[in-house]
Amino acid sequence: MEKYLKPLYDFLAKGEWYLEEPEFINLQYEIVDEMEADKIGFDAIENILELMEKNPLVEFGTPGPLTHFIEKFYKERQEDYVNLLKKSVKDKPTVHTVWLLNRVINENKKQELIGILNSISKDKEIKQEIRDVANNFLEYHQNK
């Protein structure tokens, strides 16, 4: 997986991904195309979530190429996908993984997942930007 994700790590190491967002998104498309051509499967999800965990404030697109890539496995292996995502947001929540969790909640409305959002929104050890994202999604679900 390193050969696929290294260009993203290198790009993000520059620290100004948001200034070159179109290039960042295009790079993700190129990487996803390469992974699909090489028939990379479900096993890539952990590595992609780890990339997101190491870059907690980065917006990887809404939804973005990496999101589309990993979410196709949601349909095939829903329980496994949700378990990996839950572990990620419990251990190292990020702006993007909280957003991914919200997309699962929109499909399932599972109280357990809403509880995870609630925990993130209240955890003072988590960056405020991430807590704010979790809180916004919580408010959305409480007002539905």
Written description of the protein model:
The chain is about 75% helix and about 0% strand. The chain has one domain (about 1-140). The chain has helices at about 1-15, 20-35, 45-55, 65-75, 80-90, 95-110, 110-120, 130-140. It is an all-alpha fold. It starts with a helix and ends with a helix. The protein has eight helices and no strands. Helix 1 (about 1-15) packs antiparallel against helix 2 and helix 7 packs antiparallel against helix 8 (about 130-140).
Shape label:
globular
Order of helices and strands: HHHHHHHH
How would a textbook summarize the main sheet?
none
The radius of gyration computed from the alpha-carbon positions, rounded to a whole number of angstroms, is 15 Å
Distance between the termini: 39 Å
| Quantity of strands, as a count | 0
Helix content: over 70%
Count of spatially separate domains: 1
What is the average per-residue confidence, as pLDDT, rounded to a whole number? 93
**Range of strand content:** under 5%
Taking pLDDT < 50 over at least 5 consecutive residues as the criterion, the unreliable ranges are none
Structural class: mainly alpha
